[in-house]
Amino acid sequence: MTDAHKEFMDVFPVVAEELLAHLRSLNIPQNAIEWFERSMRHNVLGGKMNRGLTVAETLRILKRGQSLTEEEIFKANLLGWCIEWLQAFFLVSDDIMDNSKTRRGQPCWYRVDGVNMVAINDAFILESAIYFFLKKHFKKDEYYVDLIELFHETTYQTELGQLLDLITAPEDDVDLSKFSIQKHSFIVIYKTAYYSFYLPVALAMHMAGVKDEAAFKQAESILLPLGEYFQVQDDYLDCYGNPALIGKIGTDIEDNKCSWLINQALAKATPEQRKVLDENYGRRDEANVIAVKEVFTEINVEGLFKAYEEDSYTRLSALIAKVDHPLLSQDVFTTFMKRIYKRTK
Amino acid sequence: MTDAHKEFMDVFPVVAEELLAHLRSLNIPQNAIEWFERSMRHNVLGGKMNRGLTVAETLRILKRGQSLTEEEIFKANLLGWCIEWLQAFFLVSDDIMDNSKTRRGQPCWYRVDGVNMVAINDAFILESAIYFFLKKHFKKDEYYVDLIELFHETTYQTELGQLLDLITAPEDDVDLSKFSIQKHSFIVIYKTAYYSFYLPVALAMHMAGVKDEAAFKQAESILLPLGEYFQVQDDYLDCYGNPALIGKIGTDIEDNKCSWLINQALAKATPEQRKVLDENYGRRDEANVIAVKEVFTEINVEGLFKAYEEDSYTRLSALIAKVDHPLLSQDVFTTFMKRIYKRTK
Ligand SMILES: [Mg+2]
Ligand SMILES: [Mg+2]
Ligand SMILES: [Mg+2]
Ligand SMILES: [Mg+2]
Ligand SMILES: [Mg+2]
Ligand SMILES: [Mg+2]
């Protein structure tokens, strides 16, 4: 574990205890406190924590080598944890909506014995914790309202992306004519890029005292396409990645996902190929999946991805090279880029 | 429809259009906009709107006859609508968690054809609308942060009440030893009283410029017991009310609800009566319900309620008579009291 990682992890027990102490002060019965704690540990912990770690990392870059105070490190990491709590809120509910079985190598929360639909309310509680933390630790900061509004807006954006995803690709009603590259782009930018890429950087910018709206716009103009590229990789790896590396066996084809691959295939398919896709996408049988993958091979969707990856690298590097706002630094973005370019997991 | 009611209803189309215009500006595909609008109309409209109407009503009282400007009326009613949106968020998810069939005379949203678990995300979107409205209409007001924090805290309180309710009285695991009068009190205060009674008054107080924490505490000290009394009536009417008046046939006994009646009965039951309750509460058969109601009759739970009602009236009237904060008015509370004392619906 790096120092930065350790500093981040050390914040969890402190803030988890703040929540629990508050509950105890309300005299809420003990069984509810125990439930709350179990939900929090099950759902907030266990991920890769990349989003959470990015806040302090970005703040360090923005402060240009000036060392951070202990308080700044704590607060940046707490904002990182707020993203992890936000993600927990999204994932608990996403798993119910997607009828998923496992998450991070354990059963989804709603599938844990005795939980079931109570998980919906547990998701709400995970979201509420964010604003409890912000009030407790940032109320006196002049950027307090900016943080709250940023979390609200990011939450709303993610929900809108989720909505379009859910109604475009319902598992029980396969209709490929609903898919399009434009919808795919809207879904991934709203459902993933805002909260995973823009949010951690924007939080660090607020802590660094950035006020100029143009700086936020410039950051967003790189981080959203970067997040879109990341999600296209995710779609690619689901089908062509090494399950040992990505930690799961992809099921986007079976799940009728509006993924980048199927949209590329649909754009290029002959009427015969389209028929095969219509008849086999979003179905559970091995034979259906093989038929879809054959069309992908015929259309050379893998090759299209490789070209997209090269093009994205060129395009994003050019965008980064033009970053000139005095309160930003190209390093913020190259750090992301290095971490994800040609990733295999 | 009274003038106040009409003024309130006239705000809905204006603010609904604000949400839709914002969505259109994001270029979110049309099918998502239509879904969003359908969810909003199904879930926000159709209730009695008492909570929503209370904000402007309270503001008028606090302004002591001074007539409100058109802008003040609009903003007070918008805050009222924010409560209705908050309630929609709670009810959509509560119906899923309770496995309910109908709400306000129509199918629950998650049971509408094609909706299903997408309703969870729709509930989130209903919640997000609140903060969209607050930012759009109150950002320049010095009490903007107070409004946001009040909505956050009330939401969290309601979620904690919902949590205790869900784990105390799960439908599929009847265990009356989990019930207690203390838990009942916590559940109803957190799940109902904060958002239905305290929230509308506190919102009006913020608009009226009240800053003194003591005034809010004094209002809360009456509104929470008032809300508790209201919910005890609700529990009573579920069993002993006239279905033609309350608009539904109560099923609290079948649903294993931790209601005031069962808690009174448990507190007074002989071992034999307790056995009957254990064996019959929370079960679907007519015979089970009759057996429970017989024990209620033996214990004279109705009489206990009548005594509680008288006692509540005396106790709450005394509390109201002591309201002396210069920024409050006893009328705020007597209005509530008159509306609910000995209500039959
Ligand atoms: Mg999912
Ligand atoms: Mg999903
Ligand atoms: Mg994926
Ligand atoms: Mg219910
Ligand atoms: Mg319920
Ligand atoms: Mg009831």
TrEMBL record, chains A, B:
GO terms for cellular component: cytoplasm. It comes from Dissophora globulifera. GO terms for biological process: farnesyl diphosphate biosynthetic process. This is Farnesyl pyrophosphate synthetase. The lineage of its organism: Eukaryota, Fungi, Fungi incertae sedis, Mucoromycota, Mortierellomycotina. It comes from the Eukaryota. PROSITE patterns: POLYPRENYL_SYNTHASE_1 (PS00723), POLYPRENYL_SYNTHASE_2 (PS00444). It holds the Pfam family polyprenyl_synt. Belongs to the FPP/GGPP synthase family. GO terms for molecular function: (2E,6E)-farnesyl diphosphate synthase activity; dimethylallyltranstransferase activity; metal ion binding. Keywords: Lipid biosynthesis, Lipid metabolism, Magnesium, Metal-binding, Transferase. PANTHER family: FARNESYL PYROPHOSPHATE SYNTHASE (PTHR11525:SF0), FARNESYL-PYROPHOSPHATE SYNTHETASE (PTHR11525). InterPro entries: FPS1-like (IPR039702), Isoprenoid_synthase_dom_sf (IPR008949), Polyprenyl_synt (IPR000092), Polyprenyl_synt_CS (IPR033749). Its cofactor is Mg(2+). CDD domains: Trans_IPPS_HT (cd00685). The keyword Transferase applies. Pathway: Isoprenoid biosynthesis; geranyl diphosphate biosynthesis; geranyl diphosphate from dimethylallyl diphosphate and isopentenyl diphosphate: step 1/1; Isoprenoid biosynthesis; farnesyl diphosphate biosynthesis; farnesyl diphosphate from geranyl diphosphate and isopentenyl diphosphate: step 1/1.
